[in-house]
Amino acid sequence: xxxxxxxxxxxxxxxxxxxxxxxxxxxxxxxxxxxxxxxxxxxxxxxxxxxxxxxxxxxxxxxxxxxxxxxxxxxxxxxxxxxxxxxxxxxxxxxxxxxxxxxxxxxxxxxxxxxx
Amino acid sequence: xxxxxxxxxxxxxxxxxxxxxxxxxxxxxxxxxxxxxxxxxxxxxxxxxxxxxxxxxxxxxxxxxxxxxxxxxxxxxxxxxxxxxxxxxxxxxxxxxxxxxxxxxxxxxxxxxx
Lengths: 116, 114
Hints:
The complex is a heterodimer.
Chain A: E1 3-5, E2 10-14, E3 19-21, E4 24-26, E5 32-38, E6 44-50, E7 56-58, E8 64-68, E9 73-78, E10 87-94, E11 104-106, E12 110-115
Parallel strand pairs in A: 2-12
Antiparallel strand pairs in A: 1-4, 3-9, 5-6, 5-10, 7-8, 8-9, 10-11, 10-12
Chain B: E1 4-7, E2 10-13, E3 19-25, E4 32-38, E5 42-51, E6 54-57, E7 64-70, E8 73-78, E9 87-95, E10 102-105, E11 109-113
Parallel strand pairs in B: 2-11
Antiparallel strand pairs in B: 1-3, 3-8, 4-5, 4-9, 5-6, 7-8, 9-10, 9-11
């Protein structure tokens, strides 16, 4: 069975600083990988996804992520964070056909705090 | 928002009562999902559907049943609610072409079981 680990429960970053959120996955085949963001009291918004091809993927809101098969990682990055980036971030891996037709397995999330 | 609505958005109920949550989509997507979100656990899959009357269990299906009698509606039922089912419930659909299908989530239903 697949699994996702987000090692950092909380991360605090100063506004304007760079950000990297870590995600490690366990999956036997080529994974379908996703990053979602959740603002307080809101649903989940897709930031970006990796299915195949270029291992560096660009997403919305200036985020990018890099797939590293050798490290089983899919870390999320942003060069300069804004106060509006404060939220909960979830990494997920999909199983089954397509991008996770049988459902996604989520990490436990990383809570991002932005310091002024 | 991929045309997903959930109802009710908030519900308070008592232990032992039945509860049904509704997910409605307007774009004729084949796949639909129910997840629950709890602090420290992320989101966990309860059940999913791959077509009308076609459903399957997820990771945390005990105590839940689902039904899908038409494409646009996916119902989640707690036959006899327990306090451990206090959670935020999210519905999702899978949209896209073939292997590029991606899940999009509804706004959530916050359920409190007293």
